[in-house]
Amino acid sequence: MFEWLNNRSSLGQYMGESGAERPPDEEGEGIPRSDRIDIKEVDGQVRDLREFAQGLLTDKIYLENEIGQLKKRSSRLEEELRHLRSPPFIIGNVQDVLDDDRAIVRSSNGTVFLVSRNRRLPEAELRPGTRVALNQDSLSIIDVLSDAHDPLVAAAEIIDTPGVDYDDMGGLDEQIERLKEAIELPLLKPEAFEEFGITPPKGVLLCGPPGTGKTMLAKAVATQTQATFLGMVGSELAQKYIGEGGRLVRELFDLARQRSPAIIFIDEIDAIGAKRLDAATSGDREVQRTLMQLLAEMDGFSEVPDVKIIAATNRPELLDEALLRPGRFDRIIEIPLPDEEGRKAILKLHLGSMPLEKGVKIKSLIDSTEGFSGAEIKALSLEAGIRAIKDGRKKVSSEDLSSAVEIVKKNRNKSSDSDQIHYG
To answer: CATH number of 154-334: 3.90.1700.10, 3.30.300.130, 3.30.750.200, 3.40.50.300?
Structure first.
């Protein structure tokens, strides 16, 4: 930048013999041409240095912001890691509150402890039965948890209606009427039963061979009534550990009471309602405990007038006698295989919206489907439709229906040979 100051020879010529500085004239004649300062070049270099310094300052501010963000993220990750490393809490239930410092709790494994509690917790919330979190080491009450039903029970509530109507079932007019009288009538007109001084039916048992429409009847009830519908399979109530099945039954009825009026549907109830025997394994005894809890909930000390029970099974001969007595299942509705009129109604239901060729005789089809269940007749119409679609035709022919009948019969024979189903 100042190269002319470093050039001694040029400096001597400029300063003179006496060493006194000789100022240049206005035109710079006193300075050699090669050593003159280029002011414009210096200004450009200074401007570049300022821009470079400004860029460095900007980068510094950006990096400082990045460091701040990384510190926050590191702090958050350390906090999450601390939570992950913290010991888990034990879930328990309060049995009694003795004073401001102590309480009696039952842990999740069933053991009862006298423990201390967090004095900051409101005493009004520590009621007997309240779910609490316990310290893993001292079992002290750390926090009060909200009461919640088992996820299996909570998922039993059917939010959306199944979309099945009574009109979707043919040949079951008598069974539908009896079901309406036992379930819908007490929910719609409870005051009428009080005027007559009678107790409305508590439950209905649907029994019959597979595929006769037991589950569809329950879905139709859920569609028709405005009551809450809770649906479970009997095998879901059979649990591994002692007391778990009974707890599920208890929570199921508690949820039904909270959502009343409500209908509880237990499909395949023979999974937990089988006859009690003296010689039994530990698993059988646990199933029997679940059954006894179900009996107590259906006909115990606490009345559940707005809660109705519908159960279904294809093995009624296996059910315990205590489950079948009046007061629990007041009506046992048998749903047999459809007769000639029933098969006609079911065929009209499934073939009514199907395009058929001229010459299709429903009468011969009714005769050829003797012994078929409603589900098999539905499968028959499905097979016939698939055959017509595969051949590229717009209508179903008599040959399609005849072929479908043979396919269903063949499937029935295979099923009978592999697993013979008894019904009594």
So the answer is: 3.40.50.300
Q: Is residue 99 predicted with pLDDT exceeding 50?
A: yes
CATH placement of domain 340-418 = 1.10.8.60
Percent of the chain scoring above 90 in pLDDT: 4
3-state DSSP call for residue 281?
coil
pLDDT of residue 301: 47
The lowest-confidence range among 14-18, 204-208, 354-358 is 14-18
Could you give phi then psi for residue 401, rounded to 5 degrees?
Answer: -70, -40
Where in the chain are all domains bearing CATH 2.40.50.140? Answer: 90-144
Which residue intervals of the chain bear CATH 3.40.50.300?
Answer: 154-334
CA distance 136 to 121: 18
SS (H, E, C) 328-396: CCCEEEECCCCCHHHHHHHHHHHHCCCCECCCCCHHHHHHHCCCCCHHHHHHHHHHHHHHHHHCCCCCE
Of 19 and 51, the structure prediction assigns the larger pLDDT to 51
pLDDT digits (tens, 9 = 90+) for 293-344: 888 888 764 566 678 888 888 888 888 888 888 878 888 888 888 888 888 8
Buried b (16+ CB within 10 A) or exposed e, 280-316: eeeeeebbbbbbbbbbebbbeeeebebbbbbbbbbbb
| Across 94-123, average pLDDT | 79
Q: Which helix (H) or strand (E) holds 185?
A: helix 185-188
d(C-alpha 394, C-alpha 128), whole Å: 69
How far apart are alpha carbons 243 and 332 in whole angstroms? 29
- For residue 409, the one-letter residue type is K
Distance of CA 419 to the CA centre of its chain: 33
Q: What is the 3-state secondary structure (H, E, C) of 57-117?
A: HHHHHHHHHHHHHHHHHHHHHHHHHHHHHCCCCEEEEEEEECCCCEEEEEECCCCEEEEEE
Class of domain 90-144: mainly beta
Stretch 14-29: mean pLDDT, rounded?
A: 46
Q: How high is the pLDDT of residue 280? A: 63
CA–CA distance, 68 with 62 (Å, rounded to integer): 10
Instruction: Quote the CA–CA distance of 58 and 64 in Å, as a whole number.
Output: 10
